[in-house]
Amino acid sequence: MYSSGVGFVGFFTAANDVNIVILIMLVFSLDFMINHLKQRNKSAFFYMVTTILIIVGLILIGSKASAIIGSFIILTYFVKTILKANKVDKIRIMLGSLGLLIIGAFLFTILFLEEATRAFERHSYLFQRDFLEDGSFWSFILTNRDGFLVASTNAFLESENIGVRLLFGVGKHQHSLDSGLAFGGTAPIIIEMDLFDIFFFSYGVIGSLLIYTYFLVNFYRVIKIKDIFKDNFRFLFSFFIFTCYSFWAGHVMVSATAGSYYALITCGLVALHQQYKVTKYKEKNSVRRVIV
Predict the structure, then answer these.
(1) What is the Cα–Cα distance from 220 to 197, expressed in whole angstroms?
(2) How confident is the model over 175-216, as pLDDT tens digits?
(3) Does residue 142 surpass a pLDDT of 60?
(4) SS (H, E, C) 26-56
(5) What is the Cα–Cα distance from 38 to 81, expressed in whole angstroms?
(6) Which of 43, 64, 201, 236 is deepest in the core (most CB within 10 A)?
(7) Could you give the angle at the alpha carbon of 64 between the alpha carbons of 62 and 67, nearest 5°?
């Protein structure tokens, strides 16, 4: 994936695409594993294996985002499960988590130590260069996307008809050309932070409202219903992770591969809301029949 020989992308065209796909898979795999552990179902072992393989895949990608967000997902599920579990389930979850750590460490020591070491060395170098030497923590976290953002902002402020551009944008192609020139070169660039690429610079306020409102409305309709939130946390959490990743790492909402997963998650939210409405309708009608 990187010129230094670090990271793998497989059949995907970009690291961000495969990153968010595997992160979403991690959410669902952890959710299924924990639910089956609680039910003492034999299928829990299968989901333990898939979780280990997914974590291995995230590390082999070799990016900061996979390590940071992957760790956040694991920690969130661990804390969420421990807080709600009884004593027996807590012991079972602790043992399962310990088993995952031991098996994962063994796999890495035997099979992937060299790849993991190269990825660690690359990020150590970037940390030394961007943060310790240049004093820019955000350049390190954003992999210098803050520089692209500044260039795009300057191109936007120096352009003609700012009001029209703010409302309608100029399209992705023109945005990338303007940003490349403002960055000091002739090669087109994009910020790789979806909110800015879509909002200010490509499609404007109107385009952004058309794109984001649909997704956020479906998320809001589901998250405010406690029954859905409790039983289908994986859909809501996946939506949250994808949206945050889109803001941070970028160009995943407009990607055919990664964007398809965002669409599937949103379809899940729509289906859950419709199912909830049907259930409530049936309950309401059954109460009416009893009263009559």
Answers:
(1) 24
(2) 888 888 888 876 888 888 888 888 778 888 898 888 889 999
(3) yes
(4) HHHHHHHHHHHHHCCCCHHHHHHHHHHHHHH
(5) 10
(6) 201
(7) 80
Nearest partner of 34 among 92, 75, 119, judged by Cα: 92
Give residue for tokens 């690359």.
122
- 201 and 250 in contact (C-beta within 8 Å)? no
Report DSSP state, residue 25.
Answer: H
Q: Residue 2 CA to chain centroid, in angstroms?
A: 21
Q: Are 200 and 187 in contact (CB under 8 A)?
A: no
- Predicted confidence band of residue 269 (pLDDT cuts 50, 70, 90): very high
Rounded CA separation 49/223 (Å): 30
Under 8 Å between Cβ of 56 and 50: no
